[in-house]
Amino acid sequence: MINRRRLLQSGAIAGASLLLPGLAGRAFSASEAITVGIPVPISGPFAANGKFASLGGILAAEEASREFGRQVKTLDLDTEGKPATAVRKVQDAFDNNGIKLYAGGILSSESLAMGKEALRRNGVFITTAGADEITGTDCNAATFRWSVPTYGAIEQTVRPLVDMLPDAKRWYTITPQYVFGDGLLNVAKDIFKEKGIEHVGNSYHSLTEKEFSGYLTNAIAARPDVLLILNFGSQSSDTLRQAVSFGLKNRMTILVAWASGLEQFEALGPDICEGVYFGAQYWHGVDTPGNQALVKSVRERFDLTPNYSLAGSYILTKLLVDAAVKAGSIDGDKVAAELRGKTYEGLTGEETIRAQDNQVIKDYYLLKGKAKKDMADKDDFAEIVSQGKSFLSPEDAGCKMG
Amino acid sequence: MTYLFQIFNGIGIGMLYFLLAVGLSVIFGLLQFVNFAHGAFYLLGAYFTYDLVERGYSFWVAMPLAAIMVMALAALTEIVLLRRIYKLPHTFHILVTVGLALIIQEMTIIVWGPLGGNVPPPEGLNGVIIVGDFIYPEYRLFVIAFTAVLAVGLWWVLEGTRIGAIVRAGSESSENTALLGYNTLRINSAVFGLGAGLAGLAGALAAPIRGVEPFMGLEALGIAFVVVVIGGMGSYTGALLAGILVGVTQSVMASLWPEGARLMIYLGMALVIVAMPRGLLGRA
């Protein structure tokens, strides 16, 4: 943890910046550089995610440089987590730097906006953002998504936990009141109905809420067997921290369906995470060749263990560069054509980019927090309990590529 | 029964809000100074506690030490920077203190990193009290009791001692207080340090409940202003009443209309501004 913090504090590593004029609309030569824009929040409340994402992009670019014998670089674009800023930065990068490949977008709102801009300017944008619309009702030919949307996140956490805890028939949910939260909640309700689970209550809260004791008091009064936490980021950390302080961990099972991964475990510490179930897009302990290679590279290069932000950005950048080299072009339509339908050995095992909606089909993980005494090293916070792939069909997700 | 529990829980939240806001109110009452860096001092109190606990100090050492460190830092800031702008319009107060808050926030990120951290409740207070269906963390009970004792102590100092009389006199007329031979500059520094130190103490007490993260000062500042506006700028008892009202509203709304819990707090503030512009117990 010290290394990770020190590295971020130093700010020593940032995306490389260079001008790249004259590339638009033509094939590039074997010696020409490829630049990938990394539009992520480098400042503001989500800066930590952005800084890790920057490192992931840099690592992928360095590896690609060695593999393809050409210069591959990244350019960090600080979106500040704001859609308007994100779009402006992407527009500038198109106009001033000739960049057409973009890997980033931590927040759904900025990702949706940047994906539209990429489509308009014949670029290509790939993201880890969570909103269903990205490869659902707002899908477009230039936008790809690596992360699992809400449907898979609930299917791969709630369903296995229901099966593992047959006596846990009463579930309570705490949900942020906006599209993302409702998306998770609706899928959970469908599973409750199918499995005969009693949904004993739900507390909606605003996106700015920090004090969850009132909602937890409601949950306690409903006497659930399982508390399902459906918010994310610092709100899920606050909810879990306060739930543990109210002794809920000893009275019921707790599931955080959409956890941030390693950085969240670090912030909470093992005492809070022990025995709690977490849903995760990525975990450094995944036993696949692709992930083992990444963990080794990140430890050698940055002296830290990859988290979701870093790993996600790494794979996004790698996918874009590989596709651009194969296409012999950075034009969005040509790169997108290479990406679409591609099956490759990814961080989570075999991953496929579904051609109909540009959604990567990959595993989602159910983790369980370990006791401090059982941790093999400082980052060994959790074990993988189950994993799998669950996705709505493109039609059911509402994607009409047009 | 749930509502009774929510009211009790709300009092607990409210006592922390009172501690957070009372410093802001006292500073405004004496100095007529709008301190937008108040949330940043809360942030520092939380992070100093986190740092000391991480270094192996007991929470019981870390908590008061963090508050004293914030108090000293704030008093120094007042002497070096803020006293030079008291006579300027409020817009300058806002500009300078917002800048100060941003500097403290970014320094926090540089020193402790952008990731948050956890402060465990102290040994002996990490359990829960169970009464029927009601469960309440022992540490939160401690915060209620500690803050209540502190509130009475502060009230006694401000209302029942010579020092308090001088401070109150200074808030009425600093010129007349100076004419009586008191060093008002020193009084101002001490009061600013006390106000910020209370914010630091609130941060230290909140750390085991909320954890620490670099942007926690912004939320705290918002709550502090709501409490001060509802209670009345410069009113000690107003801050106490408003803190509890806001806490209880937030907690009870979690049962009645959870998604509107925050909305009701700000709606309540708007209503108070319209109906009682000086706040519930503000001075005319």
Detailed description of the structure:
- The complex is a heterodimer of chains A (402) and B (284).
- Chain A has 402 residues and is an alpha/beta fold.
- Chain A has two domains: 2-149 and 287-361, Response regulator (Rossmann fold, 3-Layer(aba) Sandwich), CATH 3.40.50; 152-285 and 364-397, 3-Layer(aba) Sandwich (Rossmann fold).
- Chain A contains 16 helices and 15 strands.
- Chain A has a seven-stranded mixed sheet, sandwiched between helices. Chain A has a five-stranded parallel sheet with strand order 2-1-3-4-5, with helices on both faces.
- In chain A, α2 packs parallel to α14.
- Chain A is globular and about 65 Å long.
- Residues 10-25 of chain A have low confidence and may be disordered.
- With 284 residues, chain B is mainly alpha-helical.
- Chain B has one domain: ABC transporter involved in vitamin B12 uptake, BtuC (Orthogonal Bundle).
- Chain B has eleven helices and two strands; from the N terminus they run ααααββααααααα.
- Chain B has helices at residues 2-31, 38-54, 59-80, 90-112, 138-160, 162-172, 174-179, 184-210, 216-231, 236-256, 261-275, and strands at 128-131, 134-137.
- A two-stranded antiparallel ribbon of chain B has the order 1-2.
- In chain B, α2 crosses α9 (216-231) and α3 (59-80) packs antiparallel against α8 (184-210).
- The radius of gyration of chain B is 19 Å and the shape is globular.
- Chain B starts with a helix and ends in a 9-residue tail after the last helix.
- In chain B, 51% of the residues are buried.
- The chains are: A alpha/beta (402), B mainly alpha (284).
- Chains A and B meet through α1, α2, β7, α8 and α9 of A and α1, α4, β2, α8 and α10 of B.
